[in-house]
Design goal:
The protein is mainly beta and 121 residues long. The protein has one domain: 2,3-Dihydroxybiphenyl 1,2-Dioxygenase, domain 1 (Roll). Helix content is 15%, strand content 41%. It has two helices and eight strands. A hairpin with a 5-residue loop joins strand 7 and strand 8. The longest helix has 10 residues.
Length: 121
C-alpha cells in the first residue's frame, strides 16, 4: 500500500482577515503566505492550515495529502472503489495532483512529495 502524509487542511472562510488574526494567536503558528482577501497559509508544527476566502454559504474543507507514488495511489483508490475526479495532472505551480470528493463533498487532494513543497518540519 502507498504511504501518505498529511500536508495541510484548507478551511473555507467568509472573512479571511478575521481568520488570519485568529490563527495568528495560536501558539507556534507561523504565517508563511498571505494574499489579503484571498488566501493565507500558516505552518503549525509539521503541517499547514490554509485559509481560503469563499463566498458565504459554501461549506466544507479541503485536505492535502502527500504521496510518494501518486500514480500508484490513484490506481489503489480506483481499485478500492473510490473514483478520483481525474488522473494525476501537473499544475501551473509545479505540483502533480488529483482530487477525490468524500461523501459530503469535502475535497481530498493528493499531491506528489517534492523539493518545492518540502518535507514537513
Amino acid at each position: 500500500m502507498n504511504a501518505v502524509v498529511l500536508e495541510s487542511i484548507s478551511l473555507h472562510v467568509a472573512d479571511l482577515e478575521k481568520s488570519v488574526a485568529f490563527y495568528a494567536k495560536l501558539p507556534g503558528a507561523k504565517l508563511v503566505i498571505h494574499h489579503p482577501g484571498r488566501f493565507a497559509k500558516y505552518r503549525v508544527g509539521g503541517a499547514h492550515i490554509q485559509l481560503v476566502a469563499l463566498p458565504v454559504g459554501q461549506k466544507g474543507f479541503h485536505i492535502e495529502i502527500d504521496a510518494a507514488d501518486l500514480h500508484a495511489l490513484h490506481d489503489e483508490l480506483k481499485a478500492a472503489g473510490i473514483e478520483p475526479e481525474g488522473p494525476p495532472t501537473k499544475q501551473f505551480f509545479g505540483r502533480t495532483q488529483f482530487r477525490v470528493l468524500d461523501p459530503d463533498g469535502n475535497v481530498l487532494e493528493f499531491d506528489t512529495l517534492d523539493a518545492m513543497h518540502g518535507s514537513p518540519a
